[in-house]
């Protein structure tokens, strides 16, 4: 059975929505999806037990925030952490991932829209000695509008050869091809930029309910 | 309806079009043929207003107005529609979302969701597309053939008057090609429009009842004719025009 402990409250649901909450610790044993929106995340620890499968979709509009997120995974488990955010002023995000066992996977997908703001992202991925046959995947995409700046510092600390680890970062503006495409359907430039940015923010969110909520917040 | 005169266009310091002329009247269907890389897609995108291409001279007059002075949005609102050779994906933006926005923009008022859905469903049916396409991300994860049909779904919803089809037949299986051609012919019957078609195959020209066929070389149209010209190309290739091609390369390089 599912045993999910979020800040000492027990859940057994397969899908959990956390809205307007302050979250510090998520511990999962079993299979579960957690959708997070408009919540306070300063120091968050995420732990997945053996044979667990955890999908987190997390969206926030950020003014000024510092967040430290620690993801730990035991044996034969998978954690997908999809974090989309729109930054209006300043966001410092530190993410640390660590494999406590073997044959697990951690995927971190960040999609950040930086609207005239400053975003600094530090990602540290650890794969320690004897923690074999794990898969680590980090995908970071940022769109900068209105002269925002992004600093992304990806680091991987790998002490085993039996690992698959990938990292990629893409930082850019709104794609001129996408802009041309939408304008060629009769949308104004402003509307097109808005659609592209909002689409970018919801694209990696693997939850229909959360997508709807995110769209409401963005409009 | 559309008159292109003496148009020269460059991209990345390369002159792709050089003294290009074309005249299309309302209701006509014209086809452009020519070897790969000769500038067929270029002329399509220049008509739509892609700012990657630099127009160094010439004019495009559309219904008496100077098209080159209009931005892309205005051109679309005036009824120009481009079905790109390789339609791109817009991640996270659905067909319905984009089309409703475009229609509201065009009509200056919110479109009724009931009428909108009804028309979307009918059009999907015509194109043999599942209804789920209505809310799918634009071209997201769609196959090459599905993308072409998805663009035709946009065409029916936006009801353009000047339609540019850049290799709409590429990537379509035999049955889909028939569906697509029937669909375009039905659109022509019910809407006053003109079509500029780019294709490598005489087959689709026949199916769409093309009136004028143009062959491109040296950055311009070098020969115009009727369907028999397309059949001649299909049998003999472009070799008859390639010699002229070499000469012009030299001229452009100078
Ligand atoms: N963005 C670009 N940057 C650089 N060169 C380009 C760009 N777009 C087009 N070109 C060049 O312009 C020329 C014309 O390209 P175009 O796409 O118009 O050819 P085409 O006739 O449509 O060919 P095909 O039959 O293969 O579709 C080519 O040589 C191409 O490489
Ligand atoms: Mg082409």
Strand content of chain B: 25-35%
Report the largest inter-chain contact. Answer: A-B, 22 and 30 residues
* Separation of the first and last Cα atoms of chain A: 39 Å
At the fold tier of CATH, the topology name of chain B is Rossmann fold
Total separate domains of chain A: 1
Order of helices and strands of chain A: EEEEEEEEEEEEEHHH
Strand sequence of the main sheet of chain B, in spatial order?
A: 6-9-10-3-11-12
Question: How many DSSP H or I helices of chain B?
Answer: 9
Question: Can you give a write-up of this model?
Answer:
The complex is a heterodimer of chains A (219) and B (254). Chain A has 219 residues and is an alpha/beta fold. Chain A has one domain (3-174). Chain A has helices at residues 176-183, 189-203, 208-218; strands spanning 3-6, 9-11, 15-19, 25-29, 31-37, 43-48, 53-73, 78-99, 105-115, 118-127, 134-145, 149-158, 163-172. In chain A, strands 1, 2, 3, 4, 5, 6, 7, 8, 9, 10, 11, 12 and 13 form a 13-stranded mixed sheet that branches. In chain A, helix 1 packs across helix 2 (189-203) and helix 2 (189-203) packs antiparallel against helix 3 (208-218). The model of chain A has no long low-confidence stretch (mean pLDDT 96). Chain B has 254 residues and is an alpha/beta fold. Chain B has nine helices and twelve strands. Chain B has helices at residues 40-48, 72-77, 95-107, 113-126, 144-158, 174-190, 202-207, 227-236, 239-253; strands at 2-11, 14-24, 29-33, 54-62, 65-66, 80-83, 90-94, 137-138, 162-166, 194-198, 212-217, 220-225. In chain B, the strands form three sheets. A six-stranded mixed sheet of chain B has the order 6-9-10-3-11-12, sandwiched between helices. A four-stranded antiparallel sheet of chain B has the order 2-1-4-5, covered by helices on one side. In chain B, strand 11 (212-217) and strand 12 form a beta hairpin. The model of chain B is unreliable at 244-254 (pLDDT under 50). Classes of the chains: A alpha/beta (219), B alpha/beta (254). The structure holds adenosine-5'-triphosphate and magnesium ion. Adenosine-5'-triphosphate (ATP) binds next to strand 2 and helix 1 of chain B.
